[in-house]
């Protein structure tokens, strides 16, 4: 494809452009201030809200249009999702960075660049475009993980993610090289997702495709690439851990689902490939669910527990991907995926806001013992903890229950009955470690508790997240019935 034939429609990347612009202005505002500039983070939050409004009211979600020579699809629902994640991360950052006097303006600038890169990554229709966007987001995540420079745990988390991210990037780039060098006449066109079906009969192309999928599995912490997740969640600053747990994982799983929607498995000679793909993804999903939930049983550190929970939830989402390959029900897959991700976002951010309230400047206060007697100190934090843990466990009528129900329905249509059994088993096991955290917080015994400095300004956010967790599923299912 010649450069002069590429149409540059800058309106198609308006939300991303707003984020980049505000990121630059935030850095400039921080650079010309002495000490900690409290106005810079507020200015950055205005930028994220502006980008969110642009994405909601000015984007072409679901239009099917492509831009920049077909390399970029129209805006997707993921853009709104990740912008909400950035907004919640920013709100959490106000409380976190105020404790230690850390520079919040620069952090918000990096967060905005990372958010824009994730949006472009998910919208990519071309492997090279996707790789560049992914690496841009990954570099930002390295920086954010190491933001607490005085914390050895934060630096350790950054190094571990650097190693994992480096391996993931190498796999992705090597996969692109295999795809490009598949020896076909249309090698350059094979970098576009829409041409993947034509390359499925080529061994070199298939090798490259497998490497690319493995790179994405690294990002979502699926088995056998899950080893970095609990350590990074534990050591990174709490707002960064929340962004890792939700936005980063969501970007990977949405991208993985997207590339499979471009492949037509119904054509002649594709049935055998489809069966192998379903079997492989199903096995990875089952092992991810088992490893995540069994690993969570032994945890007493709450951030490590959320890390293992994230591994298990990656497995649940891979069940939906396997069902997509088997059935080809793209609209139902997209509904299931975004509903589950929304429920997962509400629950995880609700938990991380609670964790953020308990942690000190040195990131201490991460064990079950630190939450002992919380029910007597803050009914708001206790109710938020209970509701969101119940949602992650899949207990009705929370949004997490309906999200898992949708995935089970997809697996039923795909006749993946054994995978349904693994998913139910994992959900039952998860109740044990979720309720271990809950049990500690409901302990009424006096003495030995960690002092709590509740931030009343965060009350509306916690109320909104808890209400969404409780009523989101019921409301959506009621609307669908109508």
Structure, explained:
By secondary structure, the chain is an all-alpha fold. Among the domains are: 117 residues; 217 residues, no CATH class. 72% of the residues lie in helices and 1% in strands. It contains 18 helices and 2 strands. The protein has a two-stranded antiparallel sheet. Helix 1 packs antiparallel against helix 4. The radius of gyration is 22 Å and the shape is globular.
Shape: globular
Order of helices and strands: HHEEHHHHHHHHHHHHHHHH
Q: In angstroms, what is the radius of gyration?
A: 22 Å
Low-confidence stretches: none
Produce a short descriptive summary.
The protein is mainly alpha-helical and 482 residues long. The chain is built from 18 helices and 2 strands. The model has no long low-confidence stretch (mean pLDDT 83).
Descriptors:
2 strands; 18 helices; globular; mainly alpha; two-stranded antiparallel ribbon; 482 residues
Topology summary:
Layout: H1 14-31, H2 39-57, E1 66-67, E2 72-73, H3 77-100, H4 104-123, H5 127-145, H6 152-180, H7 196-199, H8 203-219, H9 229-235, H10 238-261, H11 271-297, H12 302-327, H13 330-358, H14 374-377, H15 379-393, H16 399-413, H17 417-441, H18 459-481
Antiparallel strand pairs: 1-2
Helix pairs in contact: 1-2, 1-4, 2-3, 2-4, 3-4, 3-10, 3-13, 4-5, 4-10, 5-6, 6-8, 6-9, 8-10, 9-10, 9-12, 10-12, 10-13, 11-12, 11-17, 12-13, 12-16, 12-17, 13-15, 13-16, 13-18, 15-17, 15-18, 16-18
